[in-house]
Amino acid sequence: MKQLLLVLLILSSCNSAETDQTAKAITQEETQIAKDLIQGAFDDLWGGADSTKILNYHTEDFIILEHGEVWDNARIKQFMRGQLSNPDRAKRHNRMEYISIDKYGESIQMAYHNFAEFTKEDSLVSKGYWLESALAVKTEEGWRLKMMHSTRGRK
């Protein structure tokens, strides 16, 4: 009986140590880095259509699951070229509301609501909303997005 009690006590302490460790795994600095990574990617890449900055935010093998399609960096560059060829394109402004940001080893997982406003000459022409998730990994160059998933929302 004593041995069973000892085993249960050890298992119980291991479980609470894992929970505490997970809860404390991400720092405020890392949380801000993750938010800045997402916001910067949307400001520079999706809003600014600046393909020269892709590797500032993405790993070389980055993919996004974009509403049923798989896009890689080459597909994103193609999209940007199309955006830049339209002189009448609207400006895109994104705002994120984070659901969760969690760190697992050398990766950070994020879930968030992405709200976009599209303007021309300071007039709102349309809005968009997506429910998204992202995975950032620590690289030699710093934190980079490795994968994202985006689904149009109905908010």
Structural commentary:
The chain is α+β, with helices and mostly antiparallel strands and 155 residues long. It has one domain: Nuclear Transport Factor 2, Chain: A, CATH 3.10.450.50. It has 4 helices and 6 strands. The protein has helices spanning 2-23, 28-47, 54-57, 73-84, and strands at residues 58-66, 69-72, 91-104, 107-120, 123-139, 142-152. β4 (107-120) and β5 (123-139) form a beta hairpin. The chain is globular. It starts with a helix and ends with a strand. The model is unreliable at 4-24 (pLDDT under 50).
Task: Write out key terms for the chains shown.
155 residues; alpha+beta; Nuclear Transport Factor 2, Chain: A; six-stranded mixed β-sheet; globular
Annotated CATH topology: Nuclear Transport Factor 2, Chain: A
Count structural domains: 1
Give the count of helical stretches. 4
The shape, in one word, is globular
The portion of residues forming beta strands comes to: 35-45%
Ends apart, CA distance between termini: 56 Å
Beta strands, count? 6
Structural class: alpha+beta
Biggest sheet, open or closed, and with what strands and sense? 6 strands, mixed
- The average pLDDT score comes to 87
| CATH architecture classification name | Roll
CATH class: Alpha Beta
Rg over C-alpha atoms, rounded to the nearest angstrom? 20 Å
Strand order of the largest sheet: 2-1-6-5-4-3
SSE string, helices as H and strands as E: HHHEEHEEEE
